[in-house]
Amino acid sequence: MKNSIIRRNVFIAISFLFLNINWVRAAEYRVTPSIRLGQGWDSNIFATSDNVVSDFYSTVTPELTLATVTQNLSMQIRAGFEGRWYYDHPEISTAGYSKYIRLTPIDNGWTPTARFSVSPAAYYLETRDMTARSFLIPVDPTLPPQAIATYGLQKSRDYGASIGLRYQAAARVETALTLYGATHEFPDQPSAEADSRTLGTEVSIRYALNQRSSAGLYGSGSREYFETTPDARRYAAGLLLGHQFSQAFRIDGRLGMSFIQQSASSADTSDINSNDPEGNITIVYSHNTFRADFYGILGYSGLSGVVTRTGTAGINLADQFAPQWSWSLGGNYQINRTVFAAAPREDKTLNGIGSIRYAPWDWGAFDITGNASLQQTDIPNGDITRNSVILGFTLTDTHIAF
Questions:
Q1: Which CATH number fits domain 2-400: 3.30.565, 3.30.70, 2.40.160, 1.10.3470?
Q2: CA-closest candidate to residue 302, choices 342, 357, 353, 262
Q3: Distance CA 236, CA 277 (A)
Q4: Beta pairing partners, 159
Q5: Shortest CA distance to 41 belongs to which of 369, 398, 373, 314?
Q6: How far apart are CA 80 and CA 374, in angstroms?
Q7: pLDDT digit string, tens, across residues 135-178
Q8: N or C: which end of the chain has fewer CB within 10 A?
Q9: Per residue in 342-368, pLDDT tens?
């Protein structure tokens, strides 16, 4: 039942862009199909801690992007899948190594009036690649952090949806409401004991102190659903702060307290609870063709099969240093600690990705991309190191649909 609610919300959010065409002024939709062909090498194709096996592989990744940026609607839908075929181990080759779809609002999404905006978002990701998952899972300050660690060569499935409502109550006062739901599953595990879901909401009010600075308050609550342990309830409240240091440099953050309570179980007839500080920070710097994004998130999460205390930090850098050349570099680090588990566990995960791209034509580009992953955990034989490198060629073209 809870899964069907989240799936329905994902469908509603993705359909939102199409259902409001009649409300959009001077809409122009850009459709960009692409396909990436690649040859790569994987250092640990089974994602094991010992008896490590490496192999070369071929990959094909078709993708479709639909975007519109108009006076009152700015949205993007991106969908694709990766097929991967290993040379010496065809038993793990598949046309659906990764599948994904993402609906993302740009700026404020849909603004039916000058004072009111609606920002729907949704995602679906199914993959066997833990590095790809760590970069494709959405990072949003209003949503609970998600664990990025995986164990062995198993499929993970993540999907969710949110809708954010913003209203300019006065010249300097903005109010916001966000509703969200998310699910994390391991389809290869028949018992589904590690699956989890969350449903929650957040409200906030922000006051513009001047043209560059703002401050406010937020409050949030969610229900965490688990398969093998009792469900939990999470509440949080705190301060919002933001400052635009220059046209190129901005910092936003929040700092508060969170409280989580897990219902009584058959072994323990009393509820158990915990409370700790929570917060996040987002730093953005953009100048000419260079852009840098940093984020840090600390708080409770229910998307790891159990209640965890999760801290995540990430950085993304990109630049076009010549007319046909560009590069990008990204990384994230996460510590994930169980809170109420009888046998405490701690996972540490580090992921990195780097790419250099050469585009001699508008319709085609070469790239060489490297991935690196390191995972340390208390689970026996759970420590994993996995690296890969791929040489790719992408064909793409953009069309004006209507």
A1: 2.40.160
A2: 262
A3: 9
A4: 124, 183
A5: 369
A6: 26
A7: 777 666 556 667 776 666 778 888 999 999 999 999 999 999 99
A8: N
A9: 788 888 999 999 999 999 999 999 999
**Using DSSP, how many helices (H) and how many strands (E) does the chain show?**
2, 19
Pairing of strands 30-42, 325-338: unpaired
Token digits of residue 287: 């100048």
End-to-end, the C-alpha distance of the chain in Å comes to 38
Residue 161, amino acid: A
The 3 state secondary structure assigned to 326-349 is EEEEEEEEEEEEECCCCCCCEEEE
Backbone φ and ψ for 182, nearest 5 degrees, come out as -150, 150
Q: Count CB atoms within 10 A of the CB of residue 353.
A: 20
Looking at residue 91, the DSSP 8-state letter turns out to be G
pTM beyond 0.90: the answer is no
3-state DSSP call for residue 387?
strand
Give the integer Cα–Cα distance in Å for 142 and 132: 22
Size of the chain, expressed as the number of residues it contains: 402
Beta bridge partners of 203: 177, 219
Q: Any idea which residue has 């300050």 for tokens?
A: 141
Beta strands 272-287 and 249-262 are antiparallel
Strand stretches in 26-147, DSSP E: 30-42, 55-69, 73-86, 94-110, 116-127
Closest listed residue to residue 372, CA positions, set 360, 358, 390 = 390
**290 is written with which tokens?**
């260079």
DSSP assigned state of 319: E
